[in-house]
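During the reporting period the student researcher (J.K.) took over the structure-prediction task from the postdoctoral fellow and processed the backlog of single-chain submissions. One of the processed entries is reproduced below for the supervisory committee.
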Amino acid sequence: MRASRSLRKLMNFLVMVQYVPRVLRIYLSCKKSKKPFKGHTALWVKGLLNFFLYILASHVLGAFWYFFAVQRITSCWQHVCQYENGCGPSNFNCHDHHTLRNITVLDDLCPINSSNTTLFDFGIYLSVLQSGILWSTNYPLKFSNSFCWGLRNLSSLASNLEPSSNTWEILFVACISIIGLLLFVYLIGNLQTYVLLDTERLESHRRKMRLERKMKAKGRDVELWLSKHGTPLRRKPDIMEKVRLELEENWDIDVDQEILSILPRELQDYIETCKPLSRLKNVEVPPFRNMDEQVLIEISKHLKPKRYTNNQIIIKEDQPLEMMLFVVDGRVIIKKKDCSSKFQRRAGHLYGEKLLVWPSWTSFHEGTRPIATESVQAIDDVEALVLLASDMVSIGSRFRSDFDKLKMSLSQSQQTDSHWELLTCDNVTMLQQVPKLRTMDKQVLKAMSEHLQSNVYEQNVNIVQEYRPLSMMFFVTRGKVINGETGRAGNIFGEELVEWVLDKSFPEILPLSTCTAKVVSNDAEFLVLTAEVLKCLASDNFVSHFSKIASPSDLFTFVRLTRLKKVSCSISLFGT
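J.K. obtained the following structure tokens:
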């Protein structure tokens, strides 16, 4: 009997232990469901995965129900067998079929079709006993019936079950109610969590998209702001990172007013040094060192950001200078057509500083711009600030006196090559207005420009008279002077001195003026080139350059010059 009971306990243990992995699987599934899903998983998929716990739990509870039904009927048989003669534990062994069939009293004392529960109450197991599933060999029928019972009662929290007075049966029904309630709460809680997470994810995605659109718009504003303030675009990522953080907190930012306040101190200091006004003050170019701060401020307001691609020609040689170029980032090459000069300029350098002294030129109001003496070409992607000649016109008109003082300051300071280049470029341009000097070498013109002197004449004074010796060539810088023969106003008088250098009478006999020039304004200011200066310049070093001046080509000019020479000789004879 003891051996039979031990064997039965072993069999019960083996039956029960197989459900341990299933319960463990339910626990692991619950634990895994708490981890975030990788990527985006649909809400219905998450709900289905959680509902799988219901399926697994229903299968386990249905199996326990089937197992406990078998245990319940065998318990009844063993209880009845104790009071019947010829019935013992050996009768329940599987190999003893004949003895079991002869004991019909078991069916009478353990009735499954009677409503009388006083004999033995099977409680929640009565339905499975009455259906005959326990005696059936149809496994799918056993499985489906047990699973259906577990699912129905788990979902209804065992509210339809009426257990007997058996303690273990009551505890089993209570466990079904508790497990069903926990799984229901767990499922609803997870679904609510998933809905909330999906809502947050969608809201986060919308917020991210709005932020990206805002960043794209602000990116253009920041790029414009950086160019406007002379800051290289390579610092844009650092600034945009701070802008992103600010937009995430405040959702809006005024780039022009607030961008500096959100940047770290180091970046603020760097941007301050990159601002146009700061750059202009730090440039090692003579005009900027001597320029009034109000003029610098006005110039900085007119600086415009420009971008040039690799190998793009920015300024062409021998063309009117359209702009002053201030390199912010990248490199440019300065070169001449004859390759006599070639050098590079980087960030912080500029080209076209002639525009800074242009307002002090005598030809400024006539719109005659300086001529570029070199070509400027980008050799990288170049960011630059440019001051257009058209903007310099308005600046020069407002601050003309300041530019005149600037020119005077430059002339009084230490005279380096860069000083002379700026000071004489106006006079060289003015000398080139004389037709005979347009082909003259610039070195000669530069030497002439250095000897130009300033004179003032009052109204009604004849600066030159017809048939009188000509000792100076006049360039009108202020006032009005008319030709006595034609009555027309002119800017240049006494250009006969240029041809005089090539005449045989040079340098003993001065040429004669071919017209009379009279000051008709209140007074007039001139730059004059004297005959004595020409004598000095027409030395062995420069005489070859004068020989390039075109000789008279028409008969009238030839006769006129011959007559002037004769008159000059006669006057000289009478004078003696």
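The committee noted the following: Confidence is low (pLDDT under 50) at residues 414-420, 552-576.
J.K. will present the remaining backlog at the next meeting.
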